[in-house]
From TrEMBL, chain B:
Signal peptide extent: 1-18
InterPro entries: ABC-Purine-Binding, Peripla_BP_I, PnrA-like
Keywords, in A-Z order: Signal
Pfam families referenced in this protein's UniProt entry, alphabetically: Bmp (PF02608)
Biased composition (Basic and acidic residues): 26-37
Chain ranges of the ABC transporter substrate-binding protein PnrA-like domain: 53-327
Ranges for region Disordered: 26-45
Species annotation: Nitratidesulfovibrio oxamicus
Designated name of the protein: BMP family ABC transporter substrate-binding protein
Record field: transmembrane: none
PROSITE patterns xref list: PROKAR_LIPOPROTEIN
Superkingdom classification of source: Bacteria
CDD domains associated with the record: PBP1_BMP-like
From TrEMBL, chain C:
Protein name: ABC transporter permease
Keyword Lipid metabolism among UniProt keywords: no
Keywords: Cell membrane, Membrane, Transmembrane, Transmembrane helix
Source superkingdom: Bacteria
TM segment ranges: 64-82, 94-112, 118-139, 151-170, 201-219, 245-263, 275-293, 298-315, 327-346
Membrane topology classification: Multi-pass membrane protein
Matches recorded under Pfam families: BPD_transp_2
UniProt organism field: Nitratidesulfovibrio oxamicus
Subcellular location as annotated: Cell membrane
CDD domains: TM_PBP1_transp_TpRbsC_like
Length: 308, 379, 357
């Protein structure tokens, strides 16, 4: 294998890795939005997930305990959004923003003593047989357990939405809560589930950063990935398949900009670092121009007023 | 309209309370504010005449095992001196917030204030002008005042030596350098490292990736990986996180640490580290201020004072490399060898330092060009 | 069973926002104090330090006032656009571009006397900030692009653009290669109003007052301003009434950008005296909190900007005295905003114990 092919393969493998945390968060936010709730607090839930994952792994020594803790705490934080929006009818946009501010503050406040410590976390391992497939093996099957876990999510997501009763109920709560209510469902209860699941997955996305991507914790380590996930939900037209594409597209750009520098591209680093954000704008522009906004759940962001 | 009125009333009420608490505060004499204060009055009869309060302003959390951590080690040593208490504020953003933090320290009656990041230069100077009786020490800048010095250490000397080790150990002749921000301090380090590399291995090149972060393990590790992907087999870094070391260890290649001895993060990969030791310098400053012997100036001590150095070699470094580097280290300490002595060419092959000359401190402090052998942008 | 039931209020709660804010403040302070206690810090002492650091005494008030100036200007713009249901969270990037615009003016015309320099600086800041905000507005109107995401991404891009300039073309040749422009000439520095009595409080405060008055007059006394308020309260009705909805959106976004640009200009000129990357400390995000807390009213914005600025200043003292991490400020801000949001429920609804009729 010559140098260029090896480099290309390593870029693609890095693409999968840096796309994974975004994929978790995107799927989580998509789930929440499908139930009709807009939660802009992804960044906050991710960072809290990243911290609690690190802390739990540091204490127990078992990274799976970290993953569980990240999911529960990410989900727990998202329940605050539920309290504000589902019980108290607060504005969903502002509540999500507040959640981001709170999450970043909490993680930073509690996490300062843990900066500079390493933990065990996940290590990469090659999947037997699959890793030996030419090209694909090198790209997809020489990662860590959380990456493999993320491969299962999009199909599961699709199956749940398209083929199961609870999935149908969730979509009803997002499209037409009044009709769902008339059919004997409780849209508010469904939305609680939607919010918690979304927070859980966002927490997992954060956990990936502190347990697999690196084995360190620091404040602000999400650096905007949560917001990119929110944008990708729109880009993906609320469909899991396109979310995979979007997340890897971003992973690819993040991996590429550093490698362009390493290859000796003589461009100012500020411009290179702009790439992922500029791409978000372009991608969103492309999908908006194609009428992506119309794919949104009809009742997205609209609170369910309490009955008189 | 009524709502704005009510909000205004609320603020008015708060201001009133503020005034009241303010009065209340005044009545209390300055009771010892620090929880961490040591049991005062050391039994030694010749106790120092004055209790000194020394403040430190850090740009990042002290736990970062990097820059601020190194300063905080020295702060702890200063705290252990007789009749000295210390306090610090971490994660202070450079700019307007820094000025307020430094000013608050000054108002609280600190005797010496160390501000340890370049971006604190203008704020430190502004506060220094308002508090002529307080001694200000600003790290890594270039401005001074009658009561404000700037100081730094000649880290590039240690960088040069670590470069020699790396240059001797590389097989691919491609070395990677994960760098934070394109400022002279970092550029100087990359240049010195490259000169060291090429002193033992003229064919080698050093590739630079900028992360624009001081402590972001995810980005920094990914940057190291990107260097590994283009064939680098030794990773050096100018960051506060051990992310690059982790990447190197995972791929089974060598790395060079910075700030502190990073060997416990990557024992199998770490060749050596370029390290800071601020303790002797800080103790000296505190002593001098106490005795009234302190004078303002620009201090740039080097390896001979121990402020910078290299950490013990990893087991993989062979004896002949060690002795070669140790010999050069002795020359640097003795002052018989200068790192930036001509001929030094820049990236484009133009001679920057002619044969027989040595780059001046002034030019080193303002370095914005890469030496020959570096691949990367200086922006 | 007599469970409490939710009933819609016939008219808004009297003095509602006052009670809600007070209650929310108590809740969030309570939660934050519990956090401190868990962390092993004395909560009551911490509150006292927070208070005296932010508001207790002339120095504290001076610091707080200075810090509230950029927050105030940013939140004015944010509030106006939020009123239109335009979720512009890009004040941070517009602030950066304002600073860039003002600096461009200074670098391009260094010799101007002060009477010419100041208007040129502010004009350039307003144009740069305004254009930076107008782009997402156009994208939304033309392509239906979600402005929350686009303005946020423009924040990241704007800040990196500022860095690009300061690390590159605008770097001061005498700064030893450090990323900053030269110190502005005297004519481009916004000075203190009265150093003897008011300390470092600078003329930026006067700009705030002027802008606030103009904005209030515009909103209350002009047709366009009236349409703006009406359009926000009921966009669909406004559209039926053939109001120029697109024009209004473009207008509020540009206005917000220009105001944030003013803030960037003032911060650069009066506080830092030059452009450098460290001027970005998140005023644009605090502005969103302020805008919502003040219920998008100009008078209240001043109060809440002052309050939150004091919180940020007080947190620094907390760190110096009790070694409480600075992130405590973020927790307080987030908690206050969440509890106010939840509390506003009682403005519209009340609980009753009566059974169903």
């Amino acid at each position: 294998m010559d140098m260029d092919t090896a480099l290309l393969l390593s870029i693609l493998a890095a693409t999968v890795q840096s796309g994974t945390p975004i994929l978790y968060a995107t799927l989580g936010e998509m789930f929440t939005e499908r139930s009709g709730v807009l939660n802009l607090g992804v960044e906050g839930m991710m960072i809290v997930g990243a911290f609690t994952a690190f802390l739990a792994t540091h204490i127990t020594g078992n990274p799976w305990a970290g993953v569980l803790a990240a999911g529960l705490c990410g989900g727990g934080l998202s329940l605050l959004h539920g309290v504000v929006c589902l019980i108290f009818q607060g504005n969903q946009v502002v509540s999500g923003l507040a959640l981001t501010i709170l999450g970043l503050g909490l993680a930073d406040f509690l996490g300062t003593p843990y900066v500079g410590i390493t933990t065990t976390g996940f290590q990469a391992f090659a999947v037997p047989v699959l890793a030996d497939i030419p090209v694909l093996g090198a790209i997809f099957f020489r990662h860590d357990a959380m990456v493999y876990l993320s491969y299962l999510l999009p199909p599961l997501f699709w199956l749940f939405m398209a083929r199961t009763r609870p999935g149908l109920a969730l979509r009803a709560a997002g499209e037409h809560p009044a009709a769902a209510s008339a059919a004997g469902l409780s849209p508010v209860r469904i939305r609680w589930c939607g919010i918690f699941t979304g927070g859980f997955l966002a927490g997992l996305g954060g956990a990936y950063l502190s347990l697999a991507y690196t084995h360190l914790w620091t404040n602000n380590m999400t650096s905007g990935r949560g917001w990119i996930a929110v944008a990708l939900v729109i880009f993906a037209f609320w469909r899991p398949g396109r979310a995979v594409f979007g997340a890897y597209l971003f992973g690819g750009v993040m991996a590429l900009q550093l490698r362009l520098q390493a290859m000796g591209a003589n461009l100012p680093s500020s411009l290179m670092l702009m790439l992922p954000y500029a791409l978000t704008v372009l991608v969103l522009l492309a999908s908006s121009a194609r009428g992506g906004g119309r794919a949104a759940p009809a009742a997205l962001g609209v609170n369910i007023e309490p009955e008189e | 309209m009524r709502k704005s009125v009510s909000a205004m009333l609320l603020v008015a009420a708060m201001l009133l309370m503020a005034a009241l608490t303010g009065c209340g505060e005044d009545k209390k004499p300055a009771e010892a504010p620090k929880a961490e204060q040591k049991p005062a009055a050391a039994p030694a009869p010749a106790a120092p005449a004055k209790e000194m309060q020394v403040g430190f302003v850090y740009v990042s959390p002290v736990g970062d095992v990097g820059w601020s951590w190194a300063h905080d080690q020295a702060r702890k040593a200063v705290e252990d001196m007789d009749g000295v208490t210390t306090s610090f504020v971490e994660s202070v953003p450079e700019g307007a917030d820094a000025e307020r933090v430094i000013q608050n320290m000054a108002r609280k009656g600190f005797d010496i204030i160390f501000t340890t990041s370049f971006g604190y230069m203008d704020p430190t100077l502004k506060v220094a002008e308002q508090f002529p009786n307080i001694t200000f020490m600003h790290c890594s800048g270039y401005k001074t005042a009658p009561n404000m010095s700037n100081y730094f250490g000649r880290m590039y000397q240690a960088r040069y030596l670590t470069g020699m080790v790396a240059g001797a150990m590389t097989k691919s002749n491609v070395l990677g350098y994960v760098a934070a921000f394109p400022i002279p301090e970092v550029i100087r380090g990359i240049n010195a490292y490259t000169l060291g590399v090429r002193a033992v291995n003229p064919k080698a090149e050093v590739r630079v990736v900028w992360t624009k972060t001081w402590y972001d393990p995810a980005t920094e590790k990914e940057a190291a990986k990107s260097l590994l992907d283009v064939g680098a087999d030794v990773i050096a870094q100018h960051q506060d996180s051990p992310g690059p070391q982790e990447a190197a260890q995972e791929r089974g290649v060598y790395s060079v640490g910075y700030n502190s001895d990073m060997s416990h993060f990557a024992p199998k990969s770490l060749l050596t580290s370029a390290v800071w030791n601020w303790t002797p310098f800080y103790k000296d400053v505190v002593e001098k201020v106490r005795k009234g012997e302190w004078k303002s100036g620009a201090f740039w001590p080097g390896m001979e004072t121990g402020i910078v150095g290299i950490a013990p070699y990893g087991d993989m470094v062979p004896q002949d490399v060690r002795s070669k580097v140790d010999a050069r280290k002795a020359e640097v300490v003795a002052g018989t060898y200068k790192v930036f002595s001509g001929p030094v060419k820049d990236q484009n092959g133009a001679v920057r330092v002619p044969e027989g000359q040595v780059l001046s401190d002034q030019d080193m402090l303002g370095m914005t060009w890469f030496v020959e052998g570096v691949v990367g942008s200086t922006q | 069973m007599f469970l409490p039931r939710v009933v819609k209020r016939q008219e808004p709660l009297q003095w509602g926002s006052f009670f809600i804010f007070a209650a929310a403040l108590v809740v969030s302070l309570g939660v934050s104090c519990a956090l401190l206690a868990v962390h092993g810090k004395p909560p009551l002492k911490a509150l006292a330090v927070l208070w005296s650091g932010g508001f207790g005494g002339p120095f504290a008030l001076e610091d707080t006032l200075l810090k509230s100036i950029p927050i105030f200007l940013c939140s004015l713009g944010v509030a106006v656009s939020f009123r239109m249901q335009v979720w512009n969270i890009g004040a941070e990037g517009q602030f950066a571009l304002g600073a860039v615009g003002a600096t461009w003016a200074v670098l391009a015309f260094p010799g101007l006397p002060m009477w010419a320099m100041m208007p040129v600086m502010f004009l350039c800041a307003a144009i740069a900030g305004g254009l930076w905000a107008a782009v997402p507005a156009v994208l939304r109107l033309r392509f239906g692009m979600n402005e929350i995401i686009s303005t946020l991404m423009f924040n990241y891009i704007g800040i990196l653009f500022l860095q690009f300039l300061v690390y590159g073309a605008w770097k001061d040749p005498t700064s030893f290669g450090f990323p900053m422009t030269p110190i502005f000439p005297k004519a481009a520095l916004i000075g203190p109003i009265a150093p003897a009595t008011l300390g470092r409080v600078h003329w930026g405060l006067a700009v705030c007052v002027g802008v606030a008055v103009l904005l209030a007059v515009f909103l209350k006394r002009t047709r366009l301003g009236f349409e703006l308020l009406a359009g926000g309260e009921n966009p669909r009705a406004a559209r039926y009434a053939r109001m120029p909805y697109n024009l209004l959106v473009l207008l509020v976004m540009t206005l917000c950008g220009a105001l944030a640009g003013f803030a960037g200009c003032i911060e650069t000129s009066a506080t830092v005296n030059r452009l450098q990357p460290s001027i970005m400390v998140g005023y644009g995000y605090t502005a969103i909190v302020v805008a919502w807390l003040s219920r998008l009213r100009v008078g209240s914005i001043a109060c809440f900007a002052f309050l939150l600025a004091g919180l940020r200043v007080g947190v620094e003292h907390l760190q110096l005295d009790l070694q409480v991490p600075a992130a405590f400020g973020g927790i307080l801000e987030g908690m206050i905003l969440l509890s106010v949001l939840a509390g506003q429920f009682f403005d519209r609804y009340r609980f009753t114990l009566k059974g169903r009729s």
